[in-house]
Structure formats: structure tokens, C-alpha cells
Amino acid sequence: GPGSWLGSGGGGSWLQAELGAGRSVSLGGAGSCQDESSRALTAGRGAPLGQPASAKWYDRRDYVFIEFCVEDSKDVNVNFEKSKLTFSCLGGSDNFKHLNEIDLFNNIDPNESKHKRTDRSILCCLRKGESGQAWPRLTKERAKLNWLSVDFNNWKDWEDDSDEDMSNFDRFSEMMNNMGGDDDVDLPEVDGAEDDSPDSDDEKMPDLE
């Protein structure tokens, strides 16, 4: 269904209640995807092979998240490869075709990577091949893509987190790996970046090049 998390093989649900409730990520926050989606549609009309969908991304310790901003998507196809992500779908009432191909900054684990469709966007969760290694950018090449931007609402400088914060997220990651048993597992709260305020202007920001 539209609320379930799917892997590359079309698997079943994956923490849908927790992530869907916005405990750890902000799915399609107000003004985030809506503006991007309409701008991409206007710019891409008439493209024969499909226009890239606008997307936002952010980095976490074990995962990289990419949110493709397409409303009312149909025929969603997400293909996870070791160093590449391919996304395609039809969007909106006129079935506008979107196609994104991303050569990734580093390797991922395709078998542990998932995606989830909502009426406003498609969120992809890429399991890093090497946990704990920061991604300064999403793409392999240092290039500016006009359809890709950093999701500052969810960006968190996790490398400088306190041990307490990291243990919380470690527990969350471990819970994701061990899902399938009890339905009443007590999942830890993971603070969203919107609750954080920068301590200084010197805080590390992602590479926008």
C-alpha cells in the first residue's frame, strides 16, 4: 500500500508507523516538496524521456535519505544498485514522466535500502555500505544539479553529536535491523533536525557544489 516501505525486491512494510508519524524524519514538510514539485513540472513539460523530479537529501550516520518531490505519483520504480540509484514515476493528473539517475558519492547496500510512497513524495532510505562515514554530497561527481538540493529541515551534523544522542540513534538503527518480532517494541524517539538550532555560524554545512 501507499504507506509501506518497499525494498528493491518489492518487500513488505518497514517501520511505517514510526517513520510515517514523523518521529525520525520530516516527510514532505510544509513548503518543502510542494514548491519544488510544481517548479519541476513547469520547467520540464515537453521533455520526451522524462524530466528529473526535484529532490532533497540529507545524511545520517547509517543512512542517506532522498525525497523525490512528486505529488500523486503512479508507476513508481526505484532501483538500488551498489553505487547508483535510478528513480522513475508518473506524476500528477497528466501522468507527467519523471526520471532520475544518480551516481552516488559512495557505495550502499541495495538489499537494505528501501523506499516509501506518499501522496506528496517518495522517500528513499539508502543503507550506507560503510556506516559512520559522512557523505559531504550525494553525487559521485562534484556537480551542481538544478533538481537536487539539501534538506536543511532534516540535516543533522551527527559527527559532532554527543554520545547520548548517538546511542539513541544507534538503538534506532539496531531496531530497524531487528524488526519482525514484537509489534509493541518501544522505539526510541529520534529528534528531528527542525527541533535543533545551530550553535554558531561555524557549524559544518554540506557541500553544495
Number of helices: 3
Please identify the top-level CATH class.
Mainly Beta
Give the topology string: H per helix, E per strand. Answer: EHHEEEEEEEEH
Q: Calculate Rg over CA atoms.
A: 17 Å
**Could you estimate the helical fraction of the residues in percent?**
10-25%
- What structural category arises from helix and sheet content? alpha+beta
The end-to-end distance, rounded to whole angstroms, is 37 Å
Quote the CATH topology. Answer: Immunoglobulin-like
What keywords describe this structure?
alpha+beta, globular, HSP20-like_chaperone, 24% strand, Hsp90 protein binding, isomerase, 209 residues, Immunoglobulin-like, three-stranded antiparallel β-sheet, six-stranded mixed β-sheet
Task: Produce the secondary structure layout.
Elements: E1 5-7, H1 16-20, H2 33-44, E2 55-59, E3 63-68, E4 74-80, E5 84-91, E6 96-103, E7 114-117, E8 122-127, E9 148-150, H3 163-177
Parallel strand pairs: 2-9
Antiparallel strand pairs: 1-7, 2-3, 3-8, 4-5, 5-6, 7-8
Pfam families: CS
Region (Disordered): 173-209
Subcellular location: Cytoplasm
